[in-house]
Structure formats: structure tokens, C-alpha cells
Amino acid sequence: MVRVCAALGLRQCGCAGVGSMNGSAAWCGSTPVLGTENNGEVAEEATLPEVTFSSSKHCRKKVRVGCSLWNRSALSSQSATSLRKLPLETIYLDIQDAADGWSAIRDMVVRGAPAIAIAAALSLAVEAFNLEDFNGTSDDAASFLNKKLEYLVSSRPTAVNLSDAATKLKEVISKAAATASEAQSIFQAYIEAAEIMLKDDVSSNKAIGSYGASFLQHQLKNSKKISILTHCNTGSLATAGYGTALGVIRAVHTEGLLERAYCTETRPFNQGSRLTAFELVHDNIPATLIADSAAAALMKDGRVDAVIVGADRVAANGDTANKIGTYSLALCATNHKIPFYVAAPLTSIDLSLSCGKEIVIEERSPKELTHTHGGLGEQVAASGISVWNPAFDGVIIKIRSDAFDIKDFVQKVDQ
Q1: Would you state the pLDDT for residue 191?
Q2: What is the pLDDT of residue 394?
Q3: What gap in Å lies between CA 145 and CA 406, rounded to an integer?
Q4: Contact criterion met (CB below 8 Å) for 17 and 34
């Protein structure tokens, strides 16, 4: 059994934390922490379903990411709604090829910038592993993988982690094709690269949590314990494990420094109420769920010492695209003089974009707003109403007098 942890390939354990208006940090963090039984109750010794490959000749590859299990040996597929059903139901989805991976990502069965990169990389790894009758040359194999990667990147355009992973995997494919004479050598090189990617993601998440906790302790040294507000889900269910922003909260709690974590419901998909609350309860972290619209009142009452969010894409100047509602939180935090931090791995940074205006913002189905359960339930809005449903908004960069150089930071880490 070969453990596979894949996501984005960080050459070194590193990440950049981008502060909005009031704060900045460089954070780098992760470990599997939760799972459920099918009846929705938390198992006594539950762990987040891990990512594994079975390479035995008697068993085809099995991939488990977040709360999705991908088993190539299954004879039929289950409903592709795994993460969409949590926390009341745990369903494992069979992924047989890149097409299944594309659908899982697009339909938000798997979500979270690092996790969708894992899903994409491993769905193609499963397909490559099971191509027993591939009769092409090594060049044919390279072309096959490259086209599949381009297809997978189209599933969700905003998160840079997916395109970053694809770019790195294409480099691996190109190097392998330059020396390999057989197609299987290309496929094997790809699978091994995916394994390294996942391990790197776990390492960076753990570093994010560790550094974030020590940074907050230093910055907020006048507080005996601190309360942190977070948005969306940035934990084990959105990454290879442990999480980015939620990883920092975990580390702060482990250090005995956390008074309380507050998580927003995160409409319309409710990642906060369904997933983040689930992870916090499982870890016995003191936590409170609030409505998205209650964040300003919470800050006004002095209950929040810091706001920490994740990122789907960070431009070269620090502009950050994250789950819709992040911009509102940043403005509220600025108004109440509360430090605001972005915890993200290097793979979320896109130096090819000069600013946030160049980030493509995905727009989701109107049904996610007009129906309950993120579009899966009953209609609640009036028929015929126009809907605008962007999946992301942004965090404004810090004022010019307190600027920071992300490019220089990335170059130093990559050396």
C-alpha cells in the first residue's frame, strides 16, 4: 500500500500570508483529523479520510480525498454528493478517470483550492494507472496526460492551485518523455509526482499552523487568550489535511491560546456551518457559528481579536480572491481595527497576475441561491427573480506605505 498525498508541489515548505489593511504574515500547515459514521454521528476515533493508493496487482487504485473515496475497482458509481452531504451524511464517490474528477470538482463534491488540485491530480493518476492496454508511444502518453490536465483545469477557473499543479505535472511529464522509451514510464513518473505533491501540501499546512500560532501570540501579546473569526472552510476537508486558516486555529488551540473560534455559515453553500463547524466540534475546539450578516455586530461587541481566512488565488501585489463574503469581512475588520490575515500556501500565489482585477471570478448557478442546501433542496426564492451568484470576492492590498513584496518572498523560498 502506497500512501499518496498530492495537491500542489511546494518545492520547500513555505507559504505567504497576505494581510488586508491591518496586518500581514508569512504562514505556512496539516494532519487528517476527522470523519463520520454514515448516520451522521462523529465516530469515537474518527479520522479524516486520507488519500491512498493501493498498488497491489490484485487491487486497483483507491483514492480518498477529503470525505470522498475514489475506488477504481468499484463496479458502479454512487451519487456524486460527498462533501455536499456533510455533516449529516458521509458518501464516498467512485472516481474512475479525469472526467469523473472534473465533475466532482465542478459540482463541488470536492472543494477548497488545495483539495481540488488533489482531486484533479489523483483522478488522472487513477486513469493512468488503469490504462492496461495503452498501445501508444511515450510521446503519445505525454500528449494524453497533458490534454487531460488542461481539461481538468477548466473545472474551476479561480483557484490557482489547480493550474499550478497542472503546470508542475506537465514539467514532470516533459522531462520523463525526454528520456523514457515506454508509455508506462511516463505514467509512473506522473503518479510519483502526484504523491510528492500531496506530501508537500501536508507539510506546508503544518508549517502554516505553527507559524501562524506563534505570530498571533507575538502580535496579540496583550491578550491572555484570543478569539478568531474565520470564513468558509479551510481545514482538513479543504486540503490534504489540517488546513490553512483553520490549521492556524487548531495550532492556537493546541498552544492553549484560543478563547473561541467563530465561523460564518458561508452562504450559499454553507461551507462554514456544514464543514468548518463539523471540524471544530470534532476537535473539541470552543467554537460558535454565526450568520454571515452577524460578523460586523460580533466585531462591534469586541468579541474578535483577529480574522483569518484562506485564499483561492493571490496576485503579485497581494490582492486575494477568496470565498464570497471575504471582502465584507476585510472592510468590517478595518473599520473596527481588527487585524485581518490570509493563510495560504505558495501554490495559491499567482505571480503572473499583477493585481486582483486580473483574477477570473467564477459565477455559480442561480439555483444555489434560489433553493435550499446550495441548490439541492426546495425552492425558496420567487420564480423569475434575477440572480447574481459570484463564488469569490477579494481582499484589498495593504496601503502603499506599508507594502510588502510577495515576489521577493517567493523567490527567496524557492532558492
Answers
A1: 93
A2: 80
A3: 32
A4: no
φ and ψ at residue 3, rounded to 5 degrees: -70, 130
Q: Which residue has the cell 499546512?
A: 205
Q: Over the Cα atoms of the chain, what is R_g?
A: 21
- Cα distance between the two ends of the chain: 34
Count of alpha carbons within 13 angstroms of residue 73, beta-carbon side: 11
Global pTM value: 0.76
CA distance 20 to 104: 32
DSSP string, 302-323: T--SEEEE--SEEETTS-EEEE
Report the distance separating Cα 121 and Cα 98, nearest Å.
9
Q: What letters, b where the CB count within 10 A reaches 16 and e where it falls short, cover 289-307?
A: bbebeebeebbeeeebbbb
| Exposure of 60 in the CB half-sphere (CA atoms within 13 A) | 18
β-pair type (15-17, 62-65): unpaired
Distance of CA 293 to the CA centre of its chain: 24
Distance (Å, rounded) from C-alpha 296 to C-alpha 15? 29
Q: Which of 344, 322, 325, 345 is nearest to 333 (CA)?
A: 325
- Fold of the domain spanning 223-408: Rossmann fold (3.40.50)
List, for the chain, all residue ranges whose pLDDT scores fall below the cut of 70. Answer: 1-82, 396-404, 414-415
Q: Which of 233, 324, 210, 229 is closest to 282 using CA atoms?
A: 233
64 backbone dihedrals φ, ψ, rounded to 5°? -125, 120
pLDDT of residue 376: 84
* Distances, alpha carbon 341 to alpha carbons 26, 74, 115, 140, 333, in Å: 9, 43, 21, 45, 10
Write the pLDDT tens digit of every residue in 124-139.
Answer: 998 999 888 899 999 9
40 — phi, psi (to 5°)?
95, -10
Catalytic residue positions?
Answer: 312
- Which residue in 114, 116, 359 sits closest to 244, CA to CA? 114
Rounded Cα distance between 310 and 295, Å, is 17
CA angle 130, 66, 213 (to 5 degrees): 135
Beta bridge partners of 62: 71
Domain boundaries, the chain: 223-408
Instruction: Kindly list the strands in the beta sheet with 320-323, ordered across the sheet, starting from the edge strand earlier in the chain.
Output: 349-350, 313-315, 320-323, 392-395
Q: Which of 353, 374, 318, 235 is nearest to 17 (CA)?
A: 318
SS3 163: helix
- Sign of the torsion formed by the C-alpha atoms of 126, 183, 152 and 351: positive
Supply the pLDDT for residue 246: 98
Q: Which residue has the cell 451519487?
A: 79
